[in-house]
Each structure stands twice: as C-alpha cells, then as structure tokens.
C-alpha cells in the first residue's frame, strides 16, 4: 500500500467541485487516510513549489494557491501515487485527456483542480509537509478483497 498527497486547489473550492473531485478518488477504490481544510502560507508554498522557483509564474501560482483555503487529502491504495497521477491527468487542463480530472474540469495550466505527488519520495515529503502524524489514520476498508482480489 502507498499513501499520496492530493490538494484540492482554490479553483476547486471556488467552483464548488469539492464533492465531485473527492468522489473521483473514492469511487476508484482509494482509501481516505486523512483530510483537512487549511489556508496555505507563502512560506509553505515556497517550499512546496521550490522546484519552480526560477519560473516566471512562481509568484503567480503561489498567489493563486492562497486566494482561499484548500483541502489536503491523503489517499491510500496499491500503487496509489501512480494511480492518482493518472486520475489527475496532464498538467495543462487543455491537454489532459477527457476522463481525467483535469481533462474533465480544467481549461487552464494554472487552475488545474488538483495537486498530486509525483513519486514515492515526493509523497513522503509532501505528506509530512501538510499533515501531522496524528492526522493520518491507518485503517483498512472492508472491501479490499473486492477491490484487489489476489493482486
Ligand atoms: N504551472 C503553471 N504554469 C506552467 C506549469 C505549471 O501555472 O507552465 C502550475 C500548475 O498549477 C501546476 C503547478 O504549477 O499544477 C506545478 O507544476 P508541476 O510542473 O509540478 O505540475 P504538476 O505536477 O502539478 O502536474
């Protein structure tokens, strides 16, 4: 089992899509291990988007990510990091495949609905960045056999 971080971005909250997006992950069969609403600071966003520090849009994405609170989620499942990235789709909503979250709900490269960790290393760092240990819950859903059979 892997755990991964998803952030429902301010555009998702503003557009009233919280339930829609959470249900995408839920109905896929991922297990919700943590969830909270939080208002991201410039400090945490500078750390989170440090890989984009030299880009001209660095300040713009930080501003966009702090116009209102976001919802941070921890989703768990077999290969959850890859599965969630596949569900999210390509960064630019206009290029993302229909059927993916960004492909179905976004017309923008910036306002692209969700953030999703892109590797096991990043997921571990990002979950620590946004959650305290006691905000992540370890439990098993009782439909695991139906979800994974003998995988
Ligand atoms: N972004 C942007 N312009 C770009 C590339 C990225 O505004 O040309 C924003 C977009 O919101 C994206 C975030 O910066 O989700 C982080 O970019 P990254 O390359 O890490 O893409 P992701 O992993 O989110 O698909």
From TrEMBL:
Swiss-Prot/TrEMBL catalytic activity: a ribonucleoside 5'-diphosphate + ATP = a ribonucleoside 5'-triphosphate + ADP; a 2'-deoxyribonucleoside 5'-diphosphate + ATP = a 2'-deoxyribonucleoside 5'-triphosphate + ADP
User: Can you say where in the cell this protein is located?
Assistant: Cytoplasm
Which cofactors go with this protein? Mg(2+)
Question: Is Transcription given among the entry's keywords?
Answer: no
Domain Nucleoside diphosphate kinase-like: start-end pairs: 1-138
- Identify which top EC class this enzyme belongs to: transferase
Which Gene3D superfamilies did the record assign? Nucleoside diphosphate kinase-like domain
SMART domains noted in UniProt: NDK
Family per similarity comment: Belongs to the NDK family.
Kindly provide the name given to this protein in its UniProt entry: Nucleoside diphosphate kinase
Record the organism: Parabacteroides acidifaciens
Gene label: ndk
């Amino acid at each position: 089992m892997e755990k991964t971080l998803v952030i429902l971005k301010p555009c998702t909250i503003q557009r009233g899509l919280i339930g829609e997006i959470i249900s995408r992950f839920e109905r896929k069969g991922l297990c919700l291990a943590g969830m909270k609403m939080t208002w991201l600071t410039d400090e945490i966003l500078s750390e989170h988007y440090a890989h984009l520090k030299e880009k001209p849009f660095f300040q713009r994405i930080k501003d966009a990510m702090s116009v209102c609170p976001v919802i941070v989620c921890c989703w768990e499942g077999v290969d959850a990091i890859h599965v969630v990235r596949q569900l999210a789709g390509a960064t630019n909503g206009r290029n993302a495949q229909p059927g993916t979250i960004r492909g179905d709900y976004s017309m923008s490269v910036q306002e692209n609905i969700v953030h999703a960790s892109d590797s096991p290393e990043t997921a571990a760092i990002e979950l620590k960045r946004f959650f305290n240990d006691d905000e992540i819950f370890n439990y098993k859903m009782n439909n695991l056999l139906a979800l994974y059979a003998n995988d």
